[in-house]
């Protein structure tokens, strides 16, 4: 999958939400307040997060928040260490795992199909938090 294809999918999924590009990274918000994204696409390393080696050509990382129960269902109580630069592998986010965020570096079309229901769940969770 390309970064553009995933961006288009998320924009279609939002249907009324917003996205914002900052420093070549894209932040997807479930409503207009733009306070906290439910998903991001990060395209380069930063001073606080360089573990995914995003400075490689064509490499990006899709990140999104899931609930505590889903996170534990995916990775267990104590997630096994996965190299944060491993491509096409759903893993705990290298920085925000304790907030139940997950990530995948440069997902393939097959992996993205598996991620789509998790993205829908992440969006629903973000909307429920706002409403609740």
Q: What portion of the residues fall into strands of 2 or more residues?
A: 15-25%
The termini sit apart by 34 Å
SSE pattern, N- to C-terminal: HEEEEHEEH
User: Unreliable runs, pLDDT <50, ≥5 residues?
Assistant: none
Q: What order do the strands of the largest sheet run in, or round the barrel if closed?
A: 1-2-3-4-6-5
Largest sheet: 6 strands, antiparallel
Which structural class matches the secondary elements?
alpha+beta
Radius of gyration: 14 Å
Average pLDDT works out at: 92
Examine the secondary-structure arrangement and name the CATH architecture: Alpha-Beta Complex
Strand tally, please? 6
- Percent range for helical residues? 25-40%
Name the overall outline.
globular
